[in-house]
Amino acid sequence: MTAEEFRACFPVFDHRVYMDIAARAPLSRPVREAYDRWLDDWQSTGGTKDQWMAALEVTRERFARLINASPREISYTKNVSEGLNIVANAVDWRAGDNVVICADVEHPNNIYVWLNERRRDVEVRIVRSRDGKVTPEDYMEAVDDRTRVVAVSHVSFAPGRLLDLVPIGRFCRDRGIMLVVDAAQSAGVMQVDVQAMNIDVLCVSSHKAILGPYGMGFLYCRQEWLRQLRPVYLARYSVLVEESDHEEVMGAFQYRLPDDGRRFEIGNYNYGAALATGAALDMLLSVGSQTIEDHVLDLADRLTVGLEALGLDVCSGRRGDGLCQMITAGRWGAGGHYSSSDESLRRLFDELIARGFTLSLRRGLVRFSLHYYNNKNDVDAALRVVEEENRSVAISTGTRTEIGG
């Protein structure tokens, strides 16, 4: 599928310039059609659960292929938060153990889950960023012989920087430390290879770069860790019953856990979302992660260079140093989740929205986030709005002060 064909699958581009994949994916025709087929089947026949269960396994295999894992290492979840909580509560913690995180750049859901483990006398070690930038070495220096988990985001939701996981993964693997990765902002748009990166646990929600719906997520857990983690919750699907795989068949009271991701799955599944996510994964796999990443990084570089040339401070990465699909402009930390203390930056954000752009304001920063459906025209159109706003500011103030300057 070419970039033009990919873009044509998203009706939102008929009337908007969508640059907000970091918040959520726009609905594509293939995903909508997959939902419709499932609803039609349910409505007209009452549904065939055996077929739905078979489709679940197809989607599981597609996600495994996306991140270079085995389907046996994949569990269905509702979202990243559930995946993180499943793992955090399955670790056999000992009083005095610690987990290392960088709270400055993490989404709150990858902070509270670890703070909750303080009830077991687990220490939460906080790494500090430098204006939103954190390096592999920062995490490594915080580790000691009681560190059980290092928890990171592959791409931070703000300011939007790609973290090199390879050295952290190698460091943790050599010491028997579990590397837990929040890939909500990377899987589907940036390359994620759990084998090459030595990732032990990876959590994803489908409604962002995977281009699926809300209410669906995946948990990858490396086979060696799967055998060590005992789930807090159990249900019929999460235990082995030799007599039958059917959910209503009760096995022996002395049960066994499966050696695959099903041990973390309880109750019925979000069948419609799983089938719709399968359609989204089909789209991604038809292009390939390398092609998607190359396309998006070219656009991200073009937008970064253009914004800096127009006088904006860009807080996100550069080529070879954290560049990803997310580009943030403004002053790091100058505002809350939906605000900025910089009046000119707020005015720019409002103007972009009024001109038909969809993007976000996060922690004082204007946040553009791209996918394979974006093109150079989108980037150049955004830069024209910035240039016009600069001119407007200069005229109204009688100065040459740029936005964010």
Outline the structure in words.
- About 1% of the residues have low confidence.
- The chain has two domains: 135 residues, Alpha-Beta Complex (Aspartate Aminotransferase, domain 1), CATH 3.90.1150; 238 residues, 3-Layer(aba) Sandwich (Aspartate Aminotransferase, domain 2), CATH 3.40.640.
- The strands form three sheets. A seven-stranded mixed sheet has the order 2-8-7-6-5-3-4, sandwiched between helices. It has a three-stranded antiparallel sheet with strand order 9-12-11, covered by helices on one side. Strands 1-10 form a two-stranded parallel ribbon.
- It is an alpha/beta fold and 405 residues long.
- A hairpin with a 2-residue loop joins strand 11 and strand 12.
- The two termini are 41 Å apart.
Write the CATH homologous superfamily of the largest domain.
Type I PLP-dependent aspartate aminotransferase-like (Major domain)
Give the amount of beta strand, in percent.
5-15%
Number of helices: 12
The 3D shape can be described as globular
Give the class from helix and strand content and strand pairing: alpha/beta
Question: What's the gyration radius in Å?
Answer: 22 Å
What count of domains describes the coordinates? 2
- Kindly identify the CATH topology of the largest domain: Aspartate Aminotransferase, domain 2
| Helix content bin | 25-40%
Overall pLDDT: 93
Low-confidence stretches: 396-401
Main CATH class of the largest domain:
Alpha Beta
Q: In this structure, how is the largest beta sheet organized?
A: 7 strands, mixed
Strand order of the largest sheet: 2-8-7-6-5-3-4
- Which second-level CATH architecture of the largest domain applies? 3-Layer(aba) Sandwich
